[in-house]
Amino acid sequence: MSVLFSPDGSLNVAVDPSDLPETGDAKNSRSGAMVRCKNMRTNEPGKAITRDGSAKFNTTAIETAIWWIEEQSGSRYAFAGTKIYKNESSIGTGLTSAQWSAIKYNAFNDTQDNIFALNGTDRKRIESDTVYEWGIDAPTVAPTLSTGAGSGLTGQYNAKYTYVRKVGSVIVAESNPSPAADNNVVLADQSLSVDVTQSSDSQVTHIRLYRTVTNGSTYFLDLEIPANITTAYGYSESFEESDAYISGTGYKFSIEDTTNGTENTYTWEELHSDRDDDDTGLESGSGGSGGPDRDPQPIGPNK
After folding, report:
1. Is 236 in the same domain as 275?
2. How many domains are there within the chain?
3. Both 168 and 290 in a single domain?
């Protein structure tokens, strides 16, 4: 039997529900009065429906008071105490215990919604199971400049670099630039080699190099390379494979910008096997900038 709910009568908590005034027939009843509304949901006009059941995401509930809950794509993100939870499983820790606010939003140039949350101290971007910072911290270590193996540049040069997050081929965030190199490099028909420091932020996908033109003071975009490139096995000459030449494994890896030829070439080489292999990847990259001097794109603002 369905019940039409229209609370336009009186509320009397002292009356037994069976004594409420009502009208109706054998299948339906109608009453404008009520004594209580228990285990019901009344969010549809004219209807009182038994409240939906509940289910547990985990066998262990969140013990800390929850500041904020945000739902996205069928998952529930809770901000409680010093942690962020997805479906009651912790995905972020070490945060400030304070009132959070959050919103689902797609960042500039990004078509995918993320959760952006803040509490006055922490600012976090949540993508699926991973918690990132809202933006990208600028590099704090200046690049190291030296003379490269190429040719084409004459005059005095300096360089900076930024960290970039790309979604596919589109830039959605870029840090402010690093400090400029401590010393300018003077070249005479040579190339510019730039050593940079990789970011520890896992959302960084690329590094952008900015350099001056000849004897200039404004920094222009010169090159973009993937971040955290690791070496690949290989030999450039057949004699390197002989035991008489080297014992162990040789390494050689290079990337060349085919558009600009040798003007922008990044090369890492390891010629001997007797090295410390504790590192999981390269700590810095070297960039060569040579060829005819040109006017690259000017450095852009922080996004």
Report:
1. yes
2. 3
3. yes
Residue type, 295: D
pLDDT band at 301 (very low <50, low <70, confident <90, very high): very low
Judge whether 61 lies within some domain. no
Domain range holding 228?
144-298
The SS3 assignment for 254 reads: strand
Query: Which structure tokens are listed for 123?
Result: 């600012």
Residues 135 and 173: beta-carbon distance below 8 Å: yes
Instruction: Write out pLDDT tens, residues 72-99.
Output: 988 999 999 999 999 989 999 999 999 9
Summarised one tens digit per residue, pLDDT across range 160-169 is 999 999 998 8
Tokens for 152, please give them: 């084409």
Residue 298 has phi, psi (to 5 degrees) of -70, 155
How far is residue 277 from each of residues 31, 108, 273, 281, measured CA to CA in Å? 80, 40, 9, 9
Does residue 138 belong to any structural domain of this protein?
Answer: no
pLDDT in tens, 106-158: 888 888 899 999 999 999 999 999 999 988 999 999 999 998 888 889 999 99
Same domain, 48 and 72: no
Contacts of 180 (CB under 8 A, 6+ apart): 142, 143, 158, 159, 160, 219
Is residue 110 domain-shared with residue 164, that is, in the same domain?
A: no
58 occurs within a structural domain = no
- DSSP H stretches of helix in 44-166: none
pTM, two decimal places: 0.60
Contact partners, residue 95, CB within 8 Å, separation at least 6 = 82, 83, 84, 119, 121, 122, 124
